[in-house]
Structure formats: structure tokens, C-alpha cells
Amino acid sequence: MVSDMDKRWLELVTSLSKAALDLASSAATISQPVDGPVFGLRFIQDITRQQEELERLLIAVLRHSGVPWEVLAHRYGVTRQSLHRRLAAPVNEALASGRNQRLELQRAEEATEHLASMAEIVFANLGRLDEATAVWSQRQAEPQWWRNGSSYSFE
Question: Of the candidates 109, 65, 72, which has an alpha carbon nearest to the alpha carbon of residue 88?
Fold first, then answer.
């Protein structure tokens, strides 16, 4: 029989893995030399949110394992009070929320598949590095290239 403590560990670690995979997938998307920076503008808010979620879950796992705020603050290079003030509420929320471990595991598996797909795309696009300079020069030469009915429209 799995104890409540073991279930909580599984929930936290699975959620942490899923959050890391989501961030890696978003980062892989913008690492493409030709179109990555354009996608980056669309993904930057997601990346920021994903990074914050990853940080909360990482600190939650460490706090759940007994690591004191002082040690974490030292690693951040800040005072215990400032780190606690910034992260205590979201970390406590992460610790208190009872996530469905099976659902989180399924989402982590889906995120792994997505990351693998993104890695293949990025790998294929690395061969386009020589092309990237020409594409970006062409875009730069076209006035307001981001508007002209482009699929890259930022508006």
C-alpha cells in the first residue's frame, strides 16, 4: 500500500517533470534558426509562466524533503526573508494542492512526446543555419514584414 507521503512525492516529482518538459518544448520551439525568434514572441509569456511553475515545483520538492529556506536563499544569493516572501505562498500552494498523479504522468508522457517531436524539428532546422541569414536579411529588407499578410503577424 502506498502511503499518503509517497503519493505526495509522486505527485510533486511528476508535476516537476511535466513542468520541465513543457519549458524545454517551448524553448526548443524558439531555438529554430529561421522561424524560432518569430515564434519566440508568441511563446515568451508561456515560457515565463512555465519557468515560474518549474521554480515553484522545484522549491516545493526541496522544501518537502526538508531543505530549509536558509539553504535555498544562500543558493539564490538572497536573504531567507526575501526568498520566503517571494516564494512561500506559491510553494505552499503547490505543496497543498493534491494533483492527480496519473493525470500528471499522462501529461508528462505527452510532453515527452512533444519534446521529442520538437527536437527532431530543431535538429532538421539546424541544417538551415546558412539559410537563416538570408531569410532574416530578406525580412529586414521588406518594410513591416511582420504585417504584410504574413503568417508571422504579431498583431
Answer: 72
